[in-house]
Amino acid sequence: MRGATSAKWVVGAVIVAMSATACGGGDNKADGGSAGGTFRFGITEPTAIDPVNAQESEGIVIARALFTGLYDTSTDGKLIPKLAESGTPSDDGKTWTFKIKAGTKFTNGEPVDAESFVRGWTRVSAKASASDVSYHMADIAGYEDLHSGKSDKFAGLTAVDATTLKVELSIPDFEFVKKTAHSVFSPVPKVAGAGDNKAFNDQPIGNGAFKMTSPWQHNTSITLVRNDDYGLQKAHLAKVEAKILNPANGSTLEYQGFQSGQFDYARMPTPQLTAAKAKYDPQGEWISGDFSGINYLNIFNQNAPFNNADARKAISYAIDREAIVKGVFQGLQKPASAFLPPSFADVYQAGVCTSCVKQDVAKAKEYAEKGGLKPGTVVNFGYNTGAGHEEWVQAVAQQLKDVLGLDVKLDGKPFKEALATQQDKATSGLWRQAWTADYPTADNFMTPLLSTTGIGEDPATGKAQGDNRGRYSNPEFDKLLVTAKATKDDAARAALYKQAEKLAVDTDQGVIPLWQRTQYRLVNSKKFKDIKMDFYEDPTLAEISLK
Amino acid sequence: MGRYVIRRLGQMVVVLFGATVVLFCCLFVLPGDPVGSLGGDKARDPAVVEQLRERYGLNDPLPVQYGNFVKNLAQGDLGEDFTQRRPVTEILQPKLVNTAELAITAIVIDIVIGLLAGLVAALFRYSFWDVLITLLTTMAVGFPSFVIGMVLQKAFVVELPWFPLISDGTVNSLILPAFTLAILDAALVARLMRGTMLEVLRADYVKTAIAKGLPRRTVLFKHVMRNSIIPVVTYLGISFGTLLGGALITEAIFNWDGIGLALVQAVQQQNNPIIIGVVSFGVAVFVLLNLIVDLLYAVLDPRIRLA
């Protein structure tokens, strides 16, 4: 008897709840009524939103809304001054002097002055912070001492007066200014404390267009409200809600959230792109952009069978990029014929990788012959699983089998395991890799990915600790990079970078570019205007406004 | 009974010890450095890697690491996770609450729908309702839960916006995931209940009870239900344990921040402190639930003596 009663009660409750939702459902669309509106989108749980360790695009979008640094960067790599009135290098390129806009404040009222930049950068590089992004400051004098704990001062940084910041570098770098667009170079107020100050980590107090009035709800949401005391052009939106989605299903949830009107901005799962474009492009709710990144094959340069440029070129010639772009990516990616992205207009050279331009079976076979790449040669081809690479990786493998008769062994591994294999000195063959820029400099591609220092070989274990895990190494190339960095004239420097790319990517074929980085989003342009993607592929929160 | 419980709890400590030792050994032999890389393709600065290895004692030999783990565990400290560097207890606590919330709702739905359907099917054997229930339970068992979840989501979130896509902490957000999770178990419970009830209905003591002229209701609830429910309780105990271990697929589809997803993500990232925390919790829950089920037997069937 008792059982039956409670069963009735539960069923009753379910029905009540269902009817309650039926009424409540409509509210979702109506809550933009307040002045400025609420912009809603989905992200995955960031590692950090405090500039001290914000690193992936999800963390950076929040950090950059909360903090404003010296410069910002446009999607095509141009610098946009923010708090910097000027940034001037010395003649030797080793000292940079920044003039900072006077009179702006953090949201707690502390002034944003040169000292606050010194404080922020020191906080990032201090040993106790163990920051994953502090390496961006590695060229500033005194970094080593601070990072190893020998000192608690950043020797290369001086607040000359309230509005003058002097930065001394340990090597000449005429492009250092571009690095400062990254959120890691943000100023912080005194209350920030050390890098592991949990209260500040979860609710940073910044000087950006938005602020947080409640701490980060881990795995649930992050809410930003407009900073009405912002020292620069104020934001239009009253509120930004970033719902935190699980990475296993994130893009699907974003897409469904957009379809059901619960998100104003969304990524889509790759297989849905074509359908989404067909539906939303005509309504003006589809945006796309080419970004500063590259998808490529790492080719292990120091081990057979790819320890000579001819064998590497054979692989590149054998791949039909056009066919894969059409067949696998439904035309939504663009084949790459250079390593540097087209967004870096001053250094971009379409077709610099001769072997990338078009599949050429005859040339592939000719180079294979020259490079000792006989049919039947075993080639390991690694990729990380669970990221949707399976289909195109198989297509590339099939082409290599068909054109060169290679015995391609696909080797999918979960992420950490994949990395360990790539780092191993004995690894040979190919590996899928992608890179997106941290700031708009050619150096940000070439030094980590192609230079000898980028290998970072651990003398004890032989492990490649850097990002150049294909271990391309050419002293002539290394020298070109150093010279380029130390060249003051923009055009002359660009010419050197072009020469360097030609050497590494064409002559030596140190890596094999595959496709460029193109991104697509759905945006609620019925309600908002000026929703665009920024350099970091995040929505331009500070510019969006209600229609 | 008291001694029995204490003995079983003692066994739990042994099981936990065994499980964590096995887990530590497994994690140790995994290739790759748990703090060796960032989320993307980028390698971590070697100096930072070294700092983190030191901070988390990863350079110590395995027995020392295990000793430290036990020492901290005794103080309720599961350490710090490797990505966000927050205390594991702080990270897992809301997830455990979420998982429990979902599991309890699902098990309640299981019990209500499953028992009711089983009861009806057995009492009105070969009737329209019996055939319908058999059909529906077959379908429920046949469909994978991700299909059910995605169909429910497409229908009641995207097409008919009745439910929020992302949990907003209300009962509304609980309904779809709980149903998705409960459907399979409810079907199994219904079938189990039907089978055992039919058997009990044929038993001599039921015939006797009816012959004695006891009211139908008394026969049903006092004699039939009570005797047919034991296998169902066993099944529900195990099922509840599984649910408390986290329901990966349902959690992913409905963005339910539970421990199932946390575990999978932690395994992918080799975020060992989270793995150890979730698995230890899962083992403890399983052992405890089994104990409760065994104790329930004695309550339901006085012939069963625990010693």
UniProtKB/TrEMBL annotation, chain A:
Q: Which residues form the Solute-binding protein family domain?
A: 78-456
A Pfam family the protein falls into? SBP_bac_5
Report the Gene3D superfamilies cross-referenced here: Dipeptide-binding Protein, Domain 1 (3.90.76.10), Dipeptide-binding Protein, Domain 3 (3.10.105.10), Periplasmic binding protein-like II (3.40.190.10)
Report the leader peptide range.
Answer: 1-22
CDD domains annotated for this entry? PBP2_OppA
Task: Give the top-rank taxon of the lineage listed in the UniProt record for this protein.
Answer: Bacteria
Q: For this UniProt record, give its keywords in alphabetical order, as a comma-separated list.
A: Signal
The keyword Signal appears for this protein: yes
Output this protein's name.
Answer: ABC transporter substrate-binding protein
What is the species listed in this Swiss-Prot or TrEMBL entry? Answer: Streptomyces cirratus
UniProtKB/TrEMBL annotation, chain B:
On whether Amino-acid biosynthesis is a keyword of this UniProt record, the answer is no
Q: Which residues cross the membrane?
A: 12-30, 102-124, 131-153, 173-193, 232-254, 274-300
Residues of the ABC transmembrane type-1 domain: 96-297
As for membrane topology, the entry says:
Multi-pass membrane protein
* Family matches, as InterPro entries: BPD_transp_1_N, MetI-like, MetI-like_sf
> One Pfam family for this entry, by name?
BPD_transp_1
- Write out the entry's keywords from A to Z: Cell membrane, Membrane, Transmembrane, Transmembrane helix, Transport
Q: Where in the cell is it found?
A: Cell membrane
Q: PANTHER family, from UniProt?
A: DIPEPTIDE TRANSPORT SYSTEM PERMEASE PROTEIN DPPB-RELATED, DIPEPTIDE-TRANSPORT INTEGRAL MEMBRANE PROTEIN ABC TRANSPORTER DPPB-RELATED
Entry's family note:
Belongs to the binding-protein-dependent transport system permease family.
Protein name in UniProt: Dipeptide-transport integral membrane protein ABC transporter DppB
Species whose genome carries this gene: Streptomyces cirratus
